[in-house]
Amino acid sequence: MREVVIAGVGQIAVREHWETSLRDLAYQSIKKAVSDAGTDSVDALYIGNMLAGELSGQEHLGALISDYCGFDGIEAVRIEAAAASGGAALRQGAMSVACGLNDCVVVTGVEQMTDVLQDKVTAGLSLALDTEYELASGISLAALFAILTRRYVHEGCCSPEDLALFCVNAQKNAVGNDYAMFRREITVDTIMRSPMAADPIHVLECPPVCDGSASVVLLPAEKADLEAPVKITGSAVATGTIGVNNRPDPLVFESVRDSTEKALRMAGKTREDVDFYELHDLFPVVAALSLEASGFAKKGEGALMARNGDIALEGKIPITTMGGCKARGNPVGACGIYQAAEAVLQLRQQAGKNQLPCEVGMIQCMGGTAATTITHILEV
User: Fold this and answer.
1) CA gap 344, 338 in Å, rounded
2) Which residues pair with 360 in a beta bridge?
3) Among positive and negative, which fits the CA dihedral 321, 322, 327, 330?
4) Is residue 246 domain-shared with residue 285, that is, in the same domain?
5) Are residues 259 and 295 in the same domain?
6) What distance in Å separates the CA atoms of residue 182 and residue 172, rounded to the nearest whole number?
7) What is the helix (H) or strand (E) element at residue 324, kind and residue range?
């Protein structure tokens, strides 16, 4: 197997892109990534996307975007794993380069969600659940996470204010990210006074519906003329039950635990080696449970890391260093690639005001209620 490096990254600002199309969003980030990598020869294009068919009325994204980019004749496919679609595409791209099938691979995450009414977006996102056994009851993705939040607080793990601190941290970090949607700090009091979205989750604890695209260029290490290349040394996917009701403990994300362990083992790293952790902060309880399942906190103590400042840029294990889903924004199928691009900037020492002293980063995206979790280890 060949060593894989991320040779180029490209992002566009996450916001409401009413003025353009899905294909052009992808093109803009691809153009930046290819330019950053200094290459004009692309062998394959892998696209992470969840909702194009549902919201944009467009399937067959591989042909659509490769044609628009002028990549005639290449392998080009869309990869879907709900909100983990970007991570799934990154894994497929890395495997393609590692096994020698392709030399230059572009991986793109793209989502356009703001051209339709909110109820259609909510319905689309809820397709990540079990349609027959969960959606049939009328529950939504946000409602399921609200139930988990209520259970987490009920068991005495933390207070609602502790959970709100995850959002405070994310928005503070987003101030230094030019591509983030919400670039302003926020307080716990403001969050607690905002309306309920799904009790006990407040509106200001929810990630925004938005549009965005991010891309990376993957090369084999021997063909990347870079002084300090960012390598993908660990890659793993794990699945859990698609329904929360079938789990021995709904507050244990087994797929997060398993994918973390597999990725670290593949990279030859321990948790102590990880300098930052880009987790999938869909709601505050997801961040808390991910810290626990990945082994950075004991069971029931994930939210205490927010209370103690352990997740801050200067903390023990910084998370959502560029704002995460909460503040950078949540263009679902693109989130895994935004994480990769942000991690590369950190490891290249190009993260500006948010720069960490770092050599190893872990990125992780999640589909549904942790039914699918994909983890990558990046290092210089």
Assistant:
1) 10
2) 379
3) negative
4) yes
5) yes
6) 9
7) helix 324-327
What interhelical angle do 284-293 and 254-267 show, nearest 10? Answer: 50
Location of structure tokens 């063909």: 223
Beta bridge partners of 162: none
Question: What pLDDT is recorded for position 337?
Answer: 98
- CATH code of the domain in which 42 resides: 3.40.47.10
Please tell me the total count of domains within the chain: 2
What confidence score (pLDDT) does residue 136 get?
A: 87
CA distance 167 to 162: 10
| Per-residue 3-state assignment (H helix, E strand, C coil) for 213-242 | EEEEEEEEHHHCCCCCCEEEEEEEEEECCC
Range of the domain at 33: 4-117+211-223
Report pLDDT for 208: 94
Tokens matching residue 338: 């935004």
Would you state the pLDDT for residue 225?
A: 82
pLDDT reading at 27 higher than 90: yes
In this structure, the answer to whether residues 182 and 264 fall within a common structural domain is yes
What's the average model confidence in pLDDT over 294-315?
Answer: 97
Tell whether 10 and 97 lie within a shared domain: yes
Q: Is residue 156 part of a domain?
A: yes
Q: Say how far apart CA 101 and CA 74 lie, in whole Å.
A: 12
Residue 337 CA to residue 153 CA, distance in Å, equals 32
